[in-house]
What we know:
Elements: E1 12-15, H1 17-21, H2 31-43, E2 48-54, H3 66-72, E3 80-85, H4 88-96, E4 101-107, H5 110-117, H6 121-126, H7 128-138, E5 141-147, H8 160-172, E6 177-182, H9 189-203, E7 208-213, H10 220-229, E8 234-237, H11 257-266, H12 275-286, H13 297-300, H14 305-313
Amino acid sequence: xxxxxxxxxxxxxxxxxxxxxxxxxxxxxxxxxxxxxxxxxxxxxxxxxxxxxxxxxxxxxxxxxxxxxxxxxxxxxxxxxxxxxxxxxxxxxxxxxxxxxxxxxxxxxxxxxxxxxxxxxxxxxxxxxxxxxxxxxxxxxxxxxxxxxxxxxxxxxxxxxxxxxxxxxxxxxxxxxxxxxxxxxxxxxxxxxxxxxxxxxxxxxxxxxxxxxxxxxxxxxxxxxxxxxxxxxxxxxxxxxxxxxxxxxxxxxxxxxxxxxxxxxxxxxxxxxxxxxxxxxxxxxxxxxxxxxxxxxxxxxxxxxxxxxxxxxx
Length: 314
């Protein structure tokens, strides 16, 4: 790889393992374990980490004690920490906990939005303007995720128009960033390119666009590459490939951060991430699970480095 310093070749990776990765796990990680995961990720050079979720712990007990987690993370690494919030109460908690970025979710299908947020799309968007103002007043970054941007487990196909309409509303409310999320891992590269083109056309560069892919049907990395080739420079991923959505049936598996960084490195993009260090974190995470994690690089190693080193030992 040439190691180009061209900023257009830089892809910003946000690791979501500590939030999206753990929110569906049966075993609830302790505050100390979650803090250690976050700190280990930050030490690899990842500069954005979705660390916590300020939601009702009765609905998602895995995300309880968000304030304790944020109070204990190492803030000296240069990493920026985000927290998910679904209403003003959650936003106030996030700001009090001094997150660097607030993430808010609206789902592109009515049924899924009701199950995830307990409200209609119109109600979710209706409450967003005051939330956006509050976040901006605090000086924090406001990032909006359009979940189920490529398909819904309850309604099936989601139209491009539905996604574009939500993106337009979000832009009007002044969000800093919009992420299209394939919450159930149903998208394919051609669909990613088509949807991104439509959203980019109405935003016209006014808002940063990112993507969040799941690998449920083994298309996640291909979709991420399609997004990058379409101009996206912000990608979510989860170390080891852990995670899913508790309110979407069979929505297993985020794309693995280390697998994604390997592909981007070998395509001559920069992430600023220590790939070997990230594999070490993936192996550490796997030690907390009964079954192997879906990430592949942690098993196969970095080519050619690890492969040649193994041959030399033999």
